[in-house]
Amino acid sequence: MARFELKLPKMGESVAEATITNWLKEVGDRIEADEAVLEIATDKVDSEVPSEVSGVLVEQLFGKDDLVQVGQTIAIIETEGDAPAEAKDEETAIPAAVAEIEKIIEAVQETVSTPQDFASSDKFFSPLVKNIAKEEGVSIAELDSIQGSGKDGRVTKEDILKYVEDRKSGVVALVAATEPAKVAAEPVKVAEPVKAVEPVAQKSHQAVPVSVNGGDEIIEMDRMRKLISGYMVASVQTSAHVQSFIEVDVTNIVKWRDKVKTAFEKREGEKLTFTPIMMEAVAKALKDFPGMNISVDGEYIIKKKNINLGMAAALPNGNLIVPVIKNADQLNLVGMAKAVNDLGNRAKAGKLKPDDTQGGTYTVTNVGTFGSVFGTPIINQPQVGILALGAIRKVPAVIETPEGDFIGIRQKMFLSHSYDHRVVDGALGGSFVKRVAEYLEAFDVDRDF
After folding, report:
1. CA distance linking residue 67 with residue 40, whole number of Å
2. N vs C: which end of the chain shows fewer Cβ within 10 Å?
3. Which residues are catalytic?
4. How much is the pTM?
5. How far is CA 354 from CA 210, 228, 322, 324, 358, in A?
6. Distance CA 289, CA 273 (A)
7. Closest CA to 44 of 277, 223, 296, 195
8. SS3 of residue 103 by DSSP
């Protein structure tokens, strides 16, 4: 029987590792060729790893949340017949260590089955805590090991309930099982195992905060939110953020889009939004001001040859991700619209690939989608600038004509430019966003798409 090694595939440029987020198949499960075996996550996107062969999964070499390098073997698949006999023998054989653990567990069951005398403990426990401990079979040694969150380290109701919950889920099962057995076998050494347990119990309490009034809901951040949180804090700590704002008259763009959007969709099979029009102007401005198309590496400035525009897009869970339009300055409006729609749709469907989020040189985010007039976005490291597009609104404005000035209704929006003041001064940062505004205001209403 042949054994196939399922390896972590290469997932794109500069992606060297991934985290296993979920096993879709368990040991013994039948797997068909191209069927997903597990789910993985890089620092940007989530994806599935399919099997290249049909067979039976006989071994998982990594567990959930483990970090795996590209090219590492993550599972073994038996490609002929059922699971190999060797694997079955291993599953039925009980090593001496396992047998020893079973003996310990039996000893624990005997220990916790007898009534506990909490008076022998040097710690103070309230009657409520004692009653819960007796009902749940918590031994004296276990109770002593709990790091209390109350005054002077006293064990509260929440502490004991949390410990019981962790023990049932297996978080502290081994510790809870081994310590009473040691107490029963070596009563003169009670203090030693108690000290050994304390760090574990303390860790479990620190991991999950307790609601003070019992009415609050405590929710752990998902993996993506943790990553975003880390990126945002790191960016603020790295770059000296400064902003420039400019108001833009986009009346001509609004009128032109209203006129051609139906014909555009009919001919190209794509919806025409404002985003590709804005991205086209940003790409032109970056060619005019290459000092904005750079990154910083320590004390060195890296001038980027290509203009790769990142665009913030929403994921299915509501988090944001930044897929990248490669060589954006080489695309016409049709190409830009197709790229924007493709990346946006795949982001919403959770189908982005690792390569889709790599290599960005400048980022654009549309805060106007949520009704915001303008914003102060945080720079996407290691880039040095990010542009926020505000909501387009009808506003009264002064219109200058040869016959004089008058008040009219115009479609306007704000552009908010955040840039890294370590390497971009106010003149460059302000001139760049002004150039974007000039391209938008000079939009040709007679142009073809």
Report:
1. 9
2. N
3. 421, 425
4. 0.63
5. 37, 16, 11, 10, 7
6. 26
7. 223
8. helix
